[in-house]
Amino acid sequence: MVVWTDFERTTIQDIFSKIDYAVVGQAAFSRCLTVYPWTQRYFGQFGNLYNAAAIASNPKVAAHGKIIIEALEKAVKNMDNIKATYAELSTLHSEKLQVDPDNFMLLGDCLTIVVASQLGKNFTAEVHAAFQKFLAVVVSSLRRQYY
User: Fold this and answer.
1) CA–CA separation, 27 vs 10, rounded Å?
2) Torsions phi, psi for 146 (to 5 deg)
3) 29 phi and psi, to 5 degrees?
4) pLDDT band at 147 (very low <50, low <70, confident <90, very high)
5) What angle do CA 100, 147, 83 make, to 5 degrees?
6) Rounded Cα gap, residues 86 and 140, in angstroms
7) Are 111 and 118 in contact (CB under 8 A)?
8) Is-contact 28 109, C-beta < 8 A?
9) Quick one: how far is CA 56 from the chain centroid?
């Protein structure tokens, strides 16, 4: 079980209250597909993913980016039980979609960059640490069914 400080809880909730899910989701997911092109193999049904411009303007990428942030919101609302919250999602990604679990961390890194750029000077070292801890718990929860 993860122990969250009051600062960490408040910080994570504050981050998600300030970001535009559609903008941040699209930017983070687009960045992941561009910087780590091997992650595109799971999204063949998305159409044109041939270059950064095509990825950034792809409506299916934008829609899935928003879905990702909405899924993270579930973790924010259930910080004391993220593993149970993500049990079904973990099973889906491991057994049906067969997503390489390392890709979750890559997406988390891209999300961190986008959130940092959105929050600017408010993304302090302490905020960054709390956000990284949150993402580490989320990634661990998503990887749960792989082992």
Assistant:
1) 24
2) -80, -15
3) -70, -40
4) low
5) 90
6) 10
7) no
8) no
9) 17
